[in-house]
């Protein structure tokens, strides 16, 4: 059992996210639907986390926890506009990681305005298998 976050009740541990056929994937994309899940990737596999962001509102995603994970290397991160984003301010923030060692770690992302304290809003546990 795990604690459902941000709820305070417990729920069964979700099954790891695989990429088809039960095989550990070399490339995995995670988004809002994967919040609180465990994802398995193979060694030297790639993980991309994409979260929706509205720059007009001032809320922006920050990668707040997991920097010290010896298993994952952050390759790059950026914001991309979605459709007519220059008019609506809607887009996506993304981070790309490479699995450089076996193990497990949790990545936490916070949604905050530049002048406010970040609140954890999204977390994902990554298991890296040989």
Short description:
With 130 residues, the protein is mainly beta.
Number of strands: 9
Task: Figure out the total of helices.
Answer: 1
Helix percentage? under 10%
**Percent range for β-strand residues:** over 45%
Helix-strand pattern, N to C?
EEEEEEHEEE
CATH architecture: Sandwich
What ranges have pLDDT less than 50 throughout 5 or more consecutive residues? 1-22
Structural class: mainly beta
What does the largest sheet look like? 7 strands, mixed
CATH topology term: Immunoglobulin-like
Q: What is the highest CATH level, the class?
A: Mainly Beta
* Overall mean confidence score, pLDDT: 80
C-alpha termini separation: 26 Å
Over the alpha carbons, how many angstroms does the gyration radius reach?
15 Å
Number of domains: 1
Task: Give the CA-based shape.
Answer: globular
Give an overview of the whole structure.
The chain is mainly beta and 130 residues long. It has a single domain (2-129), classed as Sandwich (Immunoglobulin-like). It is 3% helix and 57% strand. It contains 1 helix and 9 strands. The chain has one helix at 85-88; strands spanning 2-3, 10-11, 25-30, 38-54, 60-65, 72-81, 90-99, 103-112, 119-129. The strands form 2 sheets. Strands 3, 4, 5, 6, 7, 8 and 9 form a 7-stranded mixed beta sheet that branches. It has a two-stranded antiparallel ribbon with strand order 1-2. Strand 1 and strand 2 (10-11) form a beta hairpin. The longest helix has 4 residues, at 85-88. The chain is globular, with a radius of gyration of 15 Å.
């Amino acid at each position: 059992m795990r604690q459902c976050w941000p709820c305070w009740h417990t729920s069964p541990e979700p099954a790891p996210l695989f990429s088809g056929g039960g095989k550990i994937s070399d490339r995995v994309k995670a988004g809002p639907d994967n919040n609180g899940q465990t994802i398995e990737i193979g060694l030297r596999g790639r993980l991309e986390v994409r979260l929706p962001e509205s720059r007009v509102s001032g809320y922006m995603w920050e990668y707040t926890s997991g920097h010290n994970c010896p298993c994952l290397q952050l390759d790059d991160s950026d914001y991309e506009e979605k459709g007519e984003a220059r008019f609506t301010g809607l887009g996506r923030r993304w981070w790309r990681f490479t699995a450089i060692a076996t193990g497990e770690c949790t990545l936490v992302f916070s949604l905050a305005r530049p002048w406010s304290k970040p609140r954890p809003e999204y977390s994902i546990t990554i298991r890296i298998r040989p």
